[in-house]
Every structure is written in structure tokens, then in C-alpha cells.
Task: structure prediction
Amino acid sequence: MIRNLIIITILGFCTSTAASSLLSGVVQKDVQYSLTEIKLGRQFIRSARSQLAFVSDPEIASYIEGLGDRLLGPTGLSRSKFQFSVIDDDNLNAFAVPGGWISVHTGLITRTDSESELASVLAHEIAHITQRHLPRTFERAEQRTLPAVAAMMGAILVGGQIGSAALVGANAAVVADQLKYSREFEKEADAIGLELLSKGEFDVHAMPRFFLKLQKTSELHASNVPEYLRTHPLSISRIADSESRVGKFPATEVATNAEFLHIRARIRALSGDSSLKQADMFRQQIIDSVDAEKSHLIYGEAMAAMKVAQYDRSRGLIESLLIKNPDSLRYGLGYAQIELSAGNISGALRRLEKMSNSFSDHPVVLHYHAEALLAAQQFTDARRVLRQLERKTPNNANVHSMMSRVNGELGHLAQAFMSRAQFFILRYRLPEAEKELVKALEHAGESYYLRSSIEAKQEEINDLMRRYDERPKSIS
Result:
């Protein structure tokens, strides 16, 4: 598929001579994005969100962000410079986008055997960004203008025959040049990735171990090479290089991470359309497993059964886990989700209100509590919880979407449109945000404070549009 080239376009290429001068093996102290990088990243993510299924599940999102935090924390790199997300796609893939956006497909997560393997992929992608591989590529190829690359990205996202034709029309010469993928950049990303793994106290051996797994996958499916291998070419020398590097790091004992196992089970249970099959697979794994600890498999079966409306089955499984772990956040949330999905809103609220006493500031608890209050049409209480959640996660677009609905239900129309505008701002859809603020001003009445807030937000959007050149072009 032509879309398989998308990450090649993102990461870029350079001659081996230019790349070899970059192989410092040292993590940059900080990363500064150029205006061009940010523009390109915003455009790509905006387009990707219209084409790809980004996972909004708060538990999965929270986990992948936490994993990114663990990798970035010891380096001193600013966490605000990176955004981590998960895409609901069974393809084995992950990618980094200019401006610090890093995404991993559910298909890759479910194929990792340990948290360190998953962390090794994120570390590799972080390294592509910290070492400024794409900007250095642009510097080498000054003839590649932002509009040309953006046009290619748009064509790739469209896919099919139309996308193929558009891609060729966008810049055939660029495509030909990019077929020479820089293995030097990949080696540097591996080297920096190992540094990040070690500093984050992950198992550095997970990287070459995952490489070997990918190589076997490639050999078994030569006619259908995973996207990750097409965009991150894997050679014998690269595997050997990573194996030799791990010996330079101190040995680290890394225990099996229960959170990783449960999140991986959750993804398997809830992603795609095969939840009934997944529920039966989890049950069989529970029977076949020789491990004493099977909680993550039971949890996975419960979530898969919930998705296919087998509520008695899912409720019984979660209750069996809660008997052994009555104070578990994960299982308590699972129980509340099952009740909410089954239509037992009062039961879900009882569970979540009880959990709020123990986990009063936990973003995921707040998220589900707000959802349950919305379902119960307790909008005043829902707004109170959402305000608390907004303070904890101000850049969560879904929270602003929920707040928009709550304000609308309560008759606060100006605030509802303002929340909707903030949702569009965080989705990089500035023209739509601008339209929402016009509506907000129409419903602001005579309130000087409210009108001033809306006008300040309008000015903010105008500044963003000017900075990133995102104002719609007028048709003359």
C-alpha cells in the first residue's frame, strides 16, 4: 500500500556522509522545534485524525503517556515537548512526527512480550525527534519545500489509486530520492534509545530481542512485511550493533510489569471487532497457562465479554478478581465500566463514588465518574468533576468535548461553545474553533467577564493562525 510510505516521508532520509557526523550516541539536553517542524506536525496529525482511529480509552492513553514520562524523566527533556498516543490498528507499526508527536499502533503493543520491548520502540521514536533527523534531512535537501512534503503526506493518507496518482503528481523526484533510506539514522536512534531505556531502568536487552522477533516475522511473511520494518529497515548489522551495545550497560533486573500485562489484555479485548473471539481465546489461555498469576487473562476475558454484551460473564470475572484485590483501582474501574455498559448507571455511580474517596485526584477515576454522571443526567455534579479533570489534564480534548455537552445541557450556551472551541484548538482545527467562538459571543449576553474571555480566546486563535499559517485561503 502507498500508505506504508507515510513514516518514511515523516522521518526523512539523508546521505550516509551527512548522517555519520550525527552519530554522537548522546541524548540532546533539550529539543527545540522549528516553525517548519511544528507546522508540518500539526498538519500531519490533523490529517491523521481524520483517517486513523486514535484510541480515546483513558486507561490506555494514560498508560502510554506514563511510559513516555518514564523514558523522558531521567533525561531532563521537557515533557511538554512530546505527545504520545495510540492508534487502533492491528498493523505492527509506530512512528514519530515532527514537533514531538509519537504514536504506536495497538498491533505493535499486542505483539510485545514485555513492557521493556514496548519501551524500546518508544525510546527509538523519541531518539528520532531528539536527534532532529527530519530537520537535518530538510537542511540537506533545501529543494523540498513544506508544501511539497505536505502534499505528499496528504496523498499518502488518501491511499488507493487516487492517493497514488496524487503522490506521483506531488513530487515524483522526492519519492525516488527517499527510497535511499538512511540506515545511519536508524542506528543512531537505536543507540540513543538504549540510553533512554537504561536511564529509565528498563531491560536494555529488550531492544535486540524485539529486533530478532521482527526479523522472524519478516522471514515468515516475506510477501507482507510489517509496516514497522518497511519504515525502519532492519539489517543483520543493525541487530548485531544493538546486541554489542547492550553489553556496555549495567545489568538490570526488571520484574514482569502487571500494569503492562493488563493494558495489553485490555487492548486485545477492546480493539477491533473480534471481542467475542478474544473472550474465548482468553478463556483458553487461562486453561492452558502454567503461570500461577493469571489475573491479566481473567481481566482480558472480562473486558472482551463486556464488549459483546455478555454482562453476567464479565461481571462474574471481575468480581472474582475483586475478591482477591478489593482495593484494586483497575478492577474497580472495570466493574464500574461493566455496570455502565449494562445500563446499571446507579450501580456504576456507587462504585465510582466509593473509589473517588480513595482516588480523589486520579484522572482516570475522574473521567469515568464524569461519564457516569452524564449518563445519569446529573449535569451539575458532572460539571464539578469535569472542572477538576480539566485542571489535571488541560490538554485532553475529550474532556473539553464532555464539558461542552454538560454546559449545553445546563443551558450555559456561551460556555458550551467555548468548550467546543477548545476541543477544536487541541485538535488543530483552528477555523472551526473560530466559528464556535462566534457562536459563544452571540450567547454571552451582557456579561463583561464572559465576553472578555471569549474575545481573548479569539485573539489567541488569530495568533495561532498567523503563526502556523492555518487561516483558510479565500477564493478570489
